[in-house]
Amino acid sequence: MAQHTRKGAKEQALTANRLIDGVVVYLTADGKLSESLQDAEVAEGKEAAEALLTRATPFVDANEIIEPYLFAVELEDGRIRAVSVRETIRQAGPTVRLDLGKQAELADVHG
User: Fold this and answer.
1) DSSP letters along 51-98, please?
2) Could you give the CA distance from residue 15 to residue 28 in angstroms, rounded to a whole number?
3) Angle at 64 between CA 62 and CA 67, to 5 degrees
4) What share of the chain is helix, strand, coil (3-state, %, to 5)?
5) Which is nearest to 89 in space by CA: 74, 101, 107, 75?
6) Nearest alpha-carbon partner for 17 in 27, 7, 4, 3
7) Which phi and psi (to 5°) does residue 28 adopt?
8) How far apart are CA 84 and CA 79, in angstroms?
9) For residues 93 and 74, what is the distance between their CA atoms, to the nearest angstrom?
10) Quick one: how far is CA 20 from the chain centroid?
11) How many whole angstroms separate alpha carbon 84 and alpha carbon 29?
């Protein structure tokens, strides 16, 4: 399983793509998969991050997700924020049309 984090990242979450539809998902503290980054378990330190990767193995073995990896996050005002632009884009959905995907849903809620 790959890691896309900077060495020394203090806080990390685990993401993958769900095989049935390709949607980005995050591993939660209760061992489930969620489409929301805000539900993700945040691991602090190397051992906790490695444990997250290990907990993703059954989902890979069951062909539910593909290529799980860790990425750096920050906790800001009680919310989880992806550190990299790549992960910010992945959590929002495709960028080719803002009327589709999660951006469209957010526009309806906030617009």
Assistant:
1) HHHHHHHHHHHTTSEEEEEEEEEEEETTEEEESSHHHHHHHH--SS-T
2) 10
3) 100
4) 35, 30, 35
5) 101
6) 27
7) -100, 165
8) 15
9) 20
10) 17
11) 22
Predicted confidence pLDDT, tens digits, the chain (111 residues): 454 545 556 999 999 999 999 999 999 999 999 999 999 999 999 999 999 999 999 999 999 999 999 999 999 999 999 999 999 888 887 666 667 666 666 666 555
Structural tokens at position 32: 């489930």
Given a contact cutoff of 8 angstroms between Cβ atoms, the answer to whether 91 and 16 are in contact is no
User: One-letter amino acid identity for 60?
Assistant: V
Q: How far apart are CA 47 and CA 57, in angstroms?
A: 16
For tokens 């005002």, the residue is 77
Read off the tokens for 22: 């390709």
